[in-house]
Specification:
Length: 847
Amino acid sequence: MKHNSSVSMPQVEEQGLSADDVQSRVTNHQVNRADTKSSRSLLQILRENVFTFFNALIFSAMVLVLLTGQWKDAVFGFVIIVNSGIGVATELQAKATLDRLSILVASNFLVRRDSKDVEIPGEQIVIDDMLWIRSGEQIPADCKIAHSYGLELDESMLTGESRTVRKKDGDEALSGTTAVSGLALGKVVAVGKASYAARLTAKAKVYSKNRSDLNEGINKILKVMTIVVIPLCILLIWTQMRTVGGFSQAFASGHWRQAVVAAVAGVVGMIPEGLVLLTSLNFALATIRLARKNTLVQELESVETLARVDALNLDKTGTITDGGIAFEQLIALDSSNEEPSHADQHAQHAQHAQHDQHDLEQRAVDVSGEDNPNATAEAILKGLDSYTKSQDIEARLPFSSSRKWSAIRYADGSTWYLGAPEILSSSIASTESSQQSEDQLTQQVEQLASAGSRVLLLAEETQTHTDSAEREISEKLPGALHPHALIACSERIRTDAKRTLSWFRDQGVRCRLISGDNPATVGAIAAKVELTGQQQPRVMDARKLPEDIHQLASTLEDVDVLGRVLPEQKKAIVEALHTTHHVVAMTGDGVNDSLALKEADLGIAMGNAAPATKAVAQVVLVDSKFSHLPDVVARGRQVMANMERVASLFVVKTVYSALISLGVVLTAIPFPYLPRHITYIGSLTIGIPAFLLALAPNTRAYKPGFLSRVVAFALPSGIATGLSVLLAAWLIPEMMHWNLGNDADLNAWRMVCAIILFVMGILVLCRVARPLRSWRGILVAAFALIGILGAVIPPVASFFQLIIPSGRLMLVSLIAMLCAALLFAAITWVADRFSSHRQAESELSQS
């Protein structure tokens, strides 16, 4: 249920605070403000993108190279600065977008000030304000009830108990609790950090870094690299100093500069500097793209969860239907079985039936005419707007989603009930014809529900209450009710529902329709939108669900539609699906969905949802369009599938850099390429291609095991690349009779090694970008061509110290490249065969 701001409030004597009173409390900081930003602060964004361990390592390496005077070899440091800048700028744009959307979905509250009711944001509420507590609202500040009009609160978020609590004048209403039905005027007694709301909304809405397969995988990679990089860095410096005659001679001759530059080349190569930045950048870009389609992602890491969803629980109202309800008809029951014996009797009966119809419609308006009616009651009032509410109503029990009925008592002592037929029918009075009447009633209800109508029963208590002490209506149904009429309402199905559900079926996501309405009604709507395609959806009444969580999980495998689901059952359904290792998304817009949304891996709320529901959701569809969900899931899958490609590229560089560094340390040779070489090669085979591949369309369903797949790809590719460079570094000087102590020979040797590294980088890129019969093949060819052209453009070649081999060296280089390519092909072929064999064994064992 959601509140309706157009409903007039009851007349009260309280004037509320004056403008001066409010200003005084604002000055004294007695305002309901708490830090509940839905996105990170500028400081957090800067810290996570700039002040990282690896950026500090890179910066230190850049400073070392600058101290040697070889500023061209320090260009890698500026690449890191540019990458960090892009990451910060993108996340700031994402933050601005999220904050803008947060304002769109922010909730206002009604307070009484200067004898007038005014709507204000929750953060403008002050101590001693008179706050209207309306159905569907999460109370923003602690209050003491001054006037209660049948207010019922769901305190489950505080107490863990799902039952609603009736509040009377003088009772306490804590922030964080949710108004399920009724209305009340309360005096605010605690605001901001002093209230429960500060802790609840902060926990639900503030940016939080969830544990995820992607983040855990990257963190493990970084942890291993931290252990490897530092000792290798020390060993590289020691080794490179030895190649120029030791520390004393190196400092005396000035060759220490060359040793430092060479050591830095190894360190820079081992650091997957762009991986963390590209991850946060990818998340931020995904949130911006979703925001353009009016989808607010309140936690960036939720983008990953989107990719892993394989079970989607859909709330009917507001998701499959647009929330709009229209009154169809009121069907009188009292005289439906009477058979006229002649014309006069028939005419007399028709006149009596017409009188009953008007009287019943008046009763329906009276029961529905709460101070804050729900959507169904509003539809009845709108459909029967020619009637005005009676003045002789002495007591009222507002509708409650847990009871599923409401009631009024007139001054003459008669009590009328309106609610779910299956609930009220349990109290129908026993008479000789009651069984026959009940069977006919059930048949009529099922007939209307099977057509997709929402059916309510209007009934009267057979006992008349004349004692003034009995005026208050009990929350328990009486023992004897007499059914008078059925009321049929219909819901408008979203035009995009069928198409959206079809997309989820094609993507292998199991959708279930869950609702508090009649199972037959929900089943009829599920059939209309083809929830299960051409098959008839399997429908079940939630009151028959087992309580044991494992039995419930087993039952759910054979159920597509659930009706008469209670709020605590929605949460239990999510928990049961978790026991069978499903990644569950839950949509909803009502207060009764908030518990399930919080329990789900991904809570998705509609933009017109109750404040409590939006507060606990990770994703909010701002314009309440169900058709955005495929975009949401597809964007998550794109991020995860592409990040797997990207991570593989970076980890390959880490593997071959570590292997080459180890080979250099063990054989005490100069490092086979310069930092400027790895900057040039890394940009063309890893950095820029990774950025473009990360943005490519990709709807592949995500499977757990991100890290194991990345390592399985990176190890053979990295080992093949590292061995190729090391073999060339060891053999070519012998073949060419080079003296690596000579600068000309050393530069030529490093150029050949850099060329082999570039060729291997292109082969790795080919493997990552597969299939190549698309724009990806053109991408690889373009970067290979750019790399070659750079070597023949004088300014580029001079800056990066690129030399095209000639003569015998050209022949030796071509042979080395061919051998390297064959070695790469052999190692990766064996690795692929081994991986395929292990996958086949795994699938066989699972089957």
